[in-house]
Write a structure and sequence with these properties.
two-stranded antiparallel ribbon, 5 helices
Length: 118
Amino acid sequence: MRAHVFLCLLAYYVEWHMRQALKPLLFDDEDKAAAEALRPSIVAPAQRSPRAKAKAATKRTEDGLPVHSFQTLLADLATLTKNQVRPLGADGTTLDILTTPTPLQQRAFELLGVSARV
């Protein structure tokens, strides 16, 4: 039971940090200060910042990349593959071929601080 709780907390921790790093590519509001300034009082409903409204309206980031939810971005990143190829006539020699990341995938890896090439 303790191990299960630990793994759930660890997964939530990793997801939280990924969401923070990937905010420019997600529908999440990046400019909390501007959003807070639009609220007349602390008990008023939260407002979205003008940048978040523009991102939601255009469905594009400031870089021109498509905006995603966290789940759809992970699904997009999951399309990167490493294929092991054995040429005909080769005696057990294999080659590893990595797919080329799209500009969106490359930007996501840059925001996460990891390399797309393994």
